[in-house]
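User: Could you write out the 3D structure of this protein bound to NAP? I've included everything you need below.
Assistant: Certainly. Input first, then the structure.
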Amino acid sequence: MILKNINIVLTGATSGIGIETAKLLIPEGANIIGIGSSATSCIKASKQLRALNGNITFLVCDLSDQDAVHNVSKKIKEQFHQIHCLINNAGVIYLKYQKDKIGVEKTFSVNYLGHYLLTRLLLPNIMTAPESIIVNVSSVAYKRGFLDLKKLKSTNVTGMDAYARSKLAQILFTQTLSKKLNQSKVSVNCLHPGLIGTNLLGKNGLLGKLLPAFHKIVGRSAKHGAANVLHNIKLIGNSMTSGQYYSNSKHEKLLPHALDHKTANGLWDLSSKLCNLPTKID
Ligand SMILES: NC(=O)c1ccc[n+]([C@@H]2O[C@H](COP(=O)([O-])OP(=O)(O)OC[C@H]3O[C@@H](n4cnc5c(N)ncnc54)[C@H](OP(=O)(O)O)[C@@H]3O)[C@@H](O)[C@H]2O)c1
């Protein structure tokens, strides 16, 4: 896939792996539509990227708010008839239990459900492009993820348990969507970018000031994570493989619980219901 002049929607473009990915995509000549959760973070990121003189537009959207996801999708679709690449990269780990407006735990809501809705809403424009790719930035943390669909709203999972569950959901979603789009020119894949020192734990009050510092000691640089993302985008874009998981920069087999079709189908149906969308893709 040639990145010059293609339209790329990148969530979580204001920090960490996302902003470093934008820094790599800009010199390739892509048009980037970057999403951040607040006007403040979008303005700050926009200033950081200004010197690169690239084509990047920032839009504000809190992915845990379905109205905001509808609004941002509308804005994107009005401006960009074709979307060639969607990178669902935004992520968070909330250590304390909190819910979104529809009663879904917020880590799951931002990392998975908001991206599910965004992807479904942008799909008509993604399918309009001659060839397009969807990349879900998941995590190796999926390995310890556990998803009980019957108790999705009633189980008070927090921290790494909530994070692992959301990352498992992204992987199951990748496979279902890939199957549903197997007759199209859209490829859907997911990846683990590596252990990277970022602000992923930064939205946790006082602890949120300390934990990212520790994360930055044990993790590699956000530049390294972004290089992995770009490598995979190019790899996927050239081969147009679909439904796969890449860890760092290599294809990796998924553990059996992440290949469970019944859970994957159930998750699709439940997500459609929670987002007020039909289960069927037109
Ligand atoms: N760091 C790692 O070791 C690691 C490992 C495996 C996978 N990952 C994945 O990599 C991705 C990027 O994370 P990162 O490590 O680069 O963390 P980061 O530096 O904290 O960046 C997270 C991004 O997500 C956005 N975000 C958070 N909450 C949001 C919300 N409610 N609505 C919209 N956007 C929101 C943030 O935007 P604002 O700043 O505007 O809030 C920020 O741009 C995540 O999906 C994460 O799970 C990271």
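The helical segments are 16-25, 39-50, 66-79, 106-128, 159-180, 207-218, 222-239, 261-274.
User: Perfect, thank you.
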